[in-house]
Amino acid sequence: MDLNGRVALVTGGSRGIGRAIAIAIAGAGADVAVNYKENKSAADEVVAAITKLGRRAIPIRADVSMANEVQSMIAIVTERLGDIGILVNNAGVARARKIEDVDLALFDEAISVNLRSAFMVTSAVIPAMRRIKWGRLIFISSTAANVGGVVGPHYAASKAGMIGLMHSYASQLVKEGITANVISPALVETDMVRSDLRITPDRLPVGRFGRPEEVAEVAVMLAGNGYITGQSINVNGGLYPTS
Fold first, then answer.
1. Cys-Cys with 188: which of 58, 66, 183, 210 at CB 3.0–4.6 Å?
2. Domain ranges of the chain
3. Residues with active-site annotation
4. Dihedral sign for Cα atoms in the order 158, 232, 223, 170
């Protein structure tokens, strides 16, 4: 895929799936803003990996659940790299809880960080995409949106909301050169999966955890394809509902 001349913003891009996507999109030719909330050193490492590929990259700190920080982030990225044409809404939180332990505060946090943030960042980049008549909106949801998952109802609900959000953008922006799609991974080998001893590869028909790079390959494909829109692509090792 040739993404030369495009600017990408990857939220939560300092580690895990976000890190892999940021580097892969740069490998396809895009300049990349690597958003992080706390771990600047990790974001700097991603930026260094991207610059070695010959692309421009910047680390950008912002809590994407805060409207004022989102607006500031978009302004800085636009000033330093140019209009954002590729947005990967990857930032999120996953606090595993039993149903009886999910209180309102935990539910609200999941909605705010996982879903509301995606809405705010997307709203902030759409005007530039409309102006340049080109855009790629990529939402990192989860197979939990379809099967419930192991984290809890708060997480599953927030990730399901991203799918509805994507469908609305896809249907309303398709005539303006802007696509919107969801990637729904399951049990990708990240810090969260490795730290939860309840999660084992035998949950997956493929018999192993996924790799962040396998999710990144799909993100690059969606960034370079102007015909695919309104789709939810499951990168899940064959994990599907039983009914």
1. 210
2. 7-235
3. 155
4. negative
Q: Nearest CA to 92 among 186, 7, 159?
A: 159
How many other CB atoms are found less than 10 A from the CB of residue 127? 10
Q: Assess contact for 188 and 209: CB atoms under 8 A.
A: yes
Q: Output the tens digit of pLDDT for each of the chain's 243 residues.
A: 689 999 999 999 999 999 999 999 999 999 999 999 999 999 999 999 999 999 999 999 999 999 999 999 999 999 999 999 999 999 998 888 999 999 999 999 999 999 999 999 999 999 999 999 999 999 999 988 888 888 899 999 999 999 999 999 999 999 999 999 999 998 888 766 555 546 677 777 788 888 999 999 999 999 999 999 999 999 988 877 543
CA 77/CA 139 separation, integer angstroms: 19
Cβ pair 199, 193 in contact under 8 A: yes
CB atoms closer than 10 angstroms to residue 240:
12
